[in-house]
Amino acid sequence: MHSYEKSKSLYDRAKAVIPGGVNSPVRAFKSVGREPIFIESAKDSTLTDVDGNTYIDFIGSWGPMILGHTPPFMQEDFNKVIKRGISYGVPSPLEVEMAEKLVDAYKGLELVRMVNSGTEATMSAIRVARGYTGRTKILKFEGCYHGHSDALLVKSGSGTLTYGVPTSLGVPESTVKDTLVGTYNDVQELESIFKAEGDLLSCVILEPVAGNMGVVPASEEFIKALRTLCSKYGVVLIFDEVITGFRLAYGGASEVYGVEPDMVCFGKIIGGGLPVGAYGGKREIMSIVSPLGGVYQAGTLSGNPLAMHCGIKMLDHLKANPQIYIELEDKAKYLEKEMKMVIEKHQFPVTFVRYRSMPCLFFKTGALSSYEDVKSCDIEAYAAFFRSMLEEGILLPPAQFEGLFLSTAHTQWHLDQYVEKAEAALIKLYS
Ligand code: PMP
After folding, report:
1. Measured from the CB, is residue 124 less than 6 Å from ligand 1?
2. How many Cα atoms within 13 Å fall on the side-chain side of residue 241?
3. Which of 242, 247, 274, 360 to mutate to test the pocket of ligand 1 (most atoms within 8 A of CB)?
4. 186: annotated active-site residue
5. Does residue 7's CB lie within 6 angstroms of at least one atom of ligand 1?
6. Is 260 buried (19+), middle (13-18) or exposed (0-12) by CB count in 10 A?
7. Which one of 18, 98, 255, 256 has the fewest CB atoms closer than 10 angstroms to its CB?
8. Cβ-contact 428, 401 below 8 angstroms
9. What CA–CA distances, in Å, run from 340 to 56, 336, 351, 362, 366?
10. How far is CA 337 from CA 45, 211, 229, 340, 352, in A?
11. ipTM above 0.90, yes or no
């Protein structure tokens, strides 16, 4: 049994001065029925908490740690950059380099603007789509999370699913009255929405592989139908690639599905873990952004040199080593094969799903292609599983509705540990 004394004491202090003791709700570990652990350091795929407990990390800072924590090449020139100043408030060369790399990676991406988070990216992209089309309605899908800006905080995923608060207090009805919510992967419904509202829609935003209701990939049919309908009705198609961008492939979901959106949003991954986001798209659309056009969007720290430096390092490394994507997928495939064998052997009522390098263990059997399907997962069972795994030194996302975040720093041994401990935890749960 680990000791969590120091984490406990930090949590008590934190609760006195931070709402719920955390700076992002899922971190409270509330839905998995325990108190949070506080991390002191991270290296490769290992986290060490303030009590000295170590964990194999399957959160990976929710996505950006594709190469594990603090790889040496990332640390190399950091001190040089910091010595040149932390923020200037006027342009710096690194911003140009970063934008060039993004434009180079994504087909159809011609102009891109840096922001500081995924939330800012999606919020700004929607403003641009509305400004460009002169229309107000937006379409999102149930179970997709696009950050916490008001208009998008409707039937979103992640923490809001777990806590059963699909729409936040403090979001006025007037703000979300133009947000339509569709069913993920339902082509027929999509066609009828467009028939009824297509001419009023400014944009459709989606996670091409939903990573905030577990891992639920869009079917090719769904993505292609979206592309066709958006083009037909003059609606801006926005891919939220905050999780999938540079993870599924260097060109993200757009490359994997072979479908070009009109706009794309990025987040944490392109900052290598520093607070970064970006949104961009076709020149014609993005030319409406201030100072070129009338859509205002700004940011004091946008394009911050330290963040750009880390982002560029990350992108350069991914581009120079394309085998990383094969390696990541092989790891996910291995987990899938081993876990499917374990599940089959014991007939556990769970399903292991994988899309490319995004795996997820759902605590249910049967269909898993929409929010309606995943919401019947046994959340209590996941919570017990999470707690058993944590005791065994394996840190999973503290919520059923998140996938495992794999990195190149996960070795065969780490993966085998996951399988071995997961089998024991599931036996404990279901025997
Ligand atoms: N979009 C998606 C798909 C996300 O997963 C997230 C956060 N995980 C966001 C947007 C919001 O990003 P951030 O937390 O950086 O604001």
Report:
1. no
2. 34
3. 242
4. no
5. no
6. middle
7. 18
8. no
9. 21, 6, 8, 12, 14
10. 21, 21, 37, 5, 9
11. yes
Paired sense of beta strands 54-57 and 394-395, if any: parallel
The one-letter amino acid code at 122 reads: T
Output the pTM of the full model: 0.96
Q: If DSSP codes are grouped into helix, strand and coil, which group holds residue 52? A: coil
The C-alpha angle with vertex 331 and arms to 328 and 337, in degrees rounded to 5, equals 140
pLDDT in tens, 416-431: 999 999 999 999 999 9
Distance in angstroms (rounded) separating the CA atoms of residues 60 and 395:
10
For ligand 1, the distance from its centroid to the CA atom of residue 119, given in whole angstroms, is 6
User: What distance in Å separates the CA atoms of residue 190 and residue 196, rounded to the nearest whole number?
Assistant: 10
Is residue 268 among the annotated active site residues?
yes
Q: Can you say how many angstroms the Cα of residue 351 is from the centroid of all Cα atoms in its chain?
A: 21
Is the CB–ligand 1 distance for residue 147 below 6 Å? yes
Q: Is 157 in the pocket of ligand 1 (CB under 6 A)?
A: no
Which atom of ligand 1 approaches the CA of 122 most closely? 10
DSSP letters spanning 189-247: HHHHHHHHHGGGEEEEEE-SEE-SSSSEEPPHHHHHHHHHHHHHHTPEEEEE-TTTBTT
The answer to whether 348 touches 342, Cβ cutoff 8 Å, is yes
Quick: pLDDT tens for 183-221: 999 999 999 999 999 999 999 999 999 999 999 999 999
- Of 157, 71, 68, give the one whose Cα is nearest residue 406: 68
- Strand, helix or coil for residue 180: strand
Per the listing, tokens 């703000």 go with 175
What is the phi/psi pair of residue 179, to 5°? Answer: -100, 110
Written as six digits, the tokens of 353 are 């799903």
Q: Structural domains in the chain? A: 5-70+322-430 (3.90.1150.10), 73-320 (3.40.640.10)
Q: Would residue 416 show up in a list of annotated catalytic residues for this protein?
A: no
Of the candidates 397, 359, 414, 351, the one whose C-alpha atom is nearest the C-alpha of residue 378 is 351
